Amino acid sequence: MKRSATERHWPHAKRLSRRVARVFAVLFAAMSVLLPVAAGAADDAAPLLAYGARVAGDDARTRIVIEFDRNPEFSIHYVANPVRVIIDLPETSFGLKPESLEPRGLFDAIRYGGMGAGASRLVLSAKGPTEVTHAEVKPEEDGKGFRLIIDAEKIDRARFDTLLGDQKWTGTVRVAKTDRPAPAPAKAPGAFVVAVDAGHGGIDTGAIGSVTKTEEKHVTLDFARDLVATLNREPGIDAFLTRDGDEFLSLPQRVQIARQRSANLFISVHADTLRQKDIRGATVYTISDKASDHLAADLAARENLSDEIAGIPLESEPAEVADILIDLTRRETQAFSVNLARSVVTSFEGQIKLINNPHRHAGFRVLQAPDVPSILLELGFLSNKEDEKQLLDPAWRKKVSELLAVAVRRYRQTAVANGG
């Protein structure tokens, strides 16, 4: 009796299937070893999660406890004028209830957030000279997390000055995984380059919306992205963002990025809050050694606190721009800034709501580039519910971006005609 083809080849098929089975067994064994390693690597690459916190103590001693999903590496530093305790961490997602780190005891403000380049930070603003006397990480009793415990005590000024003198720290984030990449070159030689700076970011949230509780740093970035896209549709204009994510940049860094890209203009975008909730409308600010009014002076003072909020020592500011408010030899740049501000106001008039006297001036540190005409655009106020609604409206943002593009185009034509 003849066997079928299947029957004739069956011994060979069985031997082949056994070989295939052995190959799969080896592959499965390898995967069982490699997958946990890969998962562990992914876990290491993922941000830490801070999921709980508490603060206890009085004006003599205060303890802060923060719970993490993994063991957090940390370092502690001090900053003076005002006194701040800085706790640097790897990149961390802060899933904390706001009330869990409500300041008390030695501290009158506690802020936390990203610092860019894979790093995060807590800034503990102290009421007076303070020292961390004990800091450690302990595993949770259930083995499912870790606690960072910080004990701080009140000390005298002499002891605090000694702490400052002994530390070898310049304000940089030592736990950062990578350095911030150098800004890319301009798209085309001879292009008119515009730096668009989204105010705040990372640990510095900026103002908070009165109705939606939206953070200013998100409002400014959304608008800045729209503005850059609109400007880049203009022939001969190359617009770029100083930050394109929720990262912290110091005020000097923002200035340096604009100068490194040889920017012809610098536009810093903000949406602040005021105690007077009925005040609304856009404002355009230029730099000056004397504020035009109390509102401008107060706003500049708050905006200039951005680095302090993040725990950046003021002495880390580059010397070449530190004296902009004294060195009035940069009057030509200031004159171009004023021209830009006037162009923006003209473009906005009759189209969007403006504050009374919409062009104002004060000592904004972010406008300090000595060779780049710069303005700070206050889009509106998150403290006013009508302004807040507009700031969150994509159609309104598009309209304002287009009006700004008209102002930049007009300014560029005048500047080029005057050799600027």
UniProtKB/TrEMBL annotation:
<dbReference type="InterPro" id="IPR002508">
    <property type="entry name" value="MurNAc-LAA_cat"/>
</dbReference>
<feature type="domain" description="MurNAc-LAA">
    <location>
        <begin position="255"/>
        <end position="409"/>
    </location>
</feature>
<protein>
    <recommendedName>
        <fullName>N-acetylmuramoyl-L-alanine amidase</fullName>
        <ecNumber>3.5.1.28</ecNumber>
    </recommendedName>
</protein>
<dbReference type="GO" id="GO:0008745">
    <property type="term" value="F:N-acetylmuramoyl-L-alanine amidase activity"/>
</dbReference>
<dbReference type="GO" id="GO:0009253">
    <property type="term" value="P:peptidoglycan catabolic process"/>
</dbReference>
<dbReference type="GO" id="GO:0030288">
    <property type="term" value="C:outer membrane-bounded periplasmic space"/>
</dbReference>
<keyword id="KW-0378">Hydrolase</keyword>
<dbReference type="Pfam" id="PF01520">
    <property type="entry name" value="Amidase_3"/>
</dbReference>
<keyword id="KW-0732">Signal</keyword>
<dbReference type="Pfam" id="PF11741">
    <property type="entry name" value="AMIN"/>
</dbReference>
<feature type="signal peptide">
    <location>
        <begin position="1"/>
        <end position="41"/>
    </location>
</feature>
<dbReference type="InterPro" id="IPR021731">
    <property type="entry name" value="AMIN_dom"/>
</dbReference>
<dbReference type="InterPro" id="IPR050695">
    <property type="entry name" value="N-acetylmuramoyl_amidase_3"/>
</dbReference>
